[in-house]
Amino acid sequence: MHVFGLTGGIASGKSTVSRMLRELGARVLDADVLAREVVEPGTPGLTRIAERFPGVVGPDGRLDRVKLGAHIFADPAERAALNAIVHPEVRALFLQKLQALEAEGVTHVVYDVPLLIETGLHSAMEGVAVVWVPREAQKARLMARDGLDAAQAEARLQAQMALDDKRAHATWVIDNSGAPEDTRPQVEAVWRAMLAHG
Ligand SMILES: CC(C)(COP(=O)(O)OP(=O)(O)OC[C@H]1O[C@@H](n2cnc3c(N)ncnc32)[C@H](O)[C@@H]1O)[C@@H](O)C(=O)NCCC(=O)NCCS
Ligand SMILES: Nc1ncnc2c1ncn2[C@@H]1O[C@H](COP(=O)(O)OP(=O)(O)OP(=O)(O)O)[C@@H](O)[C@H]1O
Hints:
- By secondary structure, this protein is an alpha/beta fold.
- The chain has 9 helices and 5 strands, in the order E-H-E-H-H-H-H-E-E-H-H-H-E-H.
- A 5-stranded parallel beta sheet has the order 2-3-1-4-5, with helices on both faces.
- Helix 1 crosses helix 9 and helix 3 (about 45-50) runs antiparallel to helix 5 (about 75-105).
- The longest helix has 28 residues, at about 75-105.
- The mean pLDDT is about 95.
- It binds dephospho coenzyme A and adenosine-5'-triphosphate.
- Dephospho coenzyme A (COD) binds near residues 10, 32 and 79.
């Protein structure tokens, strides 16, 4: 099994790139999706979050993501506490999904992880694609997409390694600062390079 990392920063265009990869036939696992699955009602993950962060589980038994997000993005220590609960669960679920894909006969998998480099997971990958945009474009797209003000967007950007630093760890840099039509051929080239492994 050949496993490649896909990362970027918040609102840099990872989802856009992962959609293009899927259109090309790639099987993509998304850490944000896994991170939602491990905190569904009834999971040990949600129980531990409810204990550590009182008040973030709503009356419907579901995680109040807006409330928890406002809390952890404002405080690095609280964020680390949440990561310590969620990340091991995500890791275990990822390995489970990978095994299922392997059993299906899939040979090349892309793992889309916003914190791939921050968590050191990039070193376990056969190659790493970083979706890069200039910081100002990233902030503007984040504010527009999520309806955040400049300070809220800045807090989320500060919670991650700068894209200019992530580039240094990239096997492939995908420049998403132009129009999507400019991004697509870069994604095609990266997928061809991934398939050339093995
Ligand atoms: C705090 C939570 C509840 C906020 O949920 P919300 O629906 O608003 O955001 P969502 O999960 O879609 O994440 C949006 C983006 O925020 C960034 N982000 C999320 N968690 C973190 C984190 N712990 N540290 C830094 N950036 C983060 C990522 O770029 C992510 O793509 C949620 O992000 C969460 O549970 N985070 C902890 C798990 C985690 O680290 N996820 C990231 C990949 S494993
Ligand atoms: N090339 C582009 N030109 C203009 N807008 C873009 C481009 N690529 C993405 N966007 C827009 O920027 C925003 C962020 O893109 P996207 O959701 O793909 O990022 P992401 O990295 O997956 O973000 P997150 O990690 O926060 O989920 C979206 O609103 C998207 O429509």
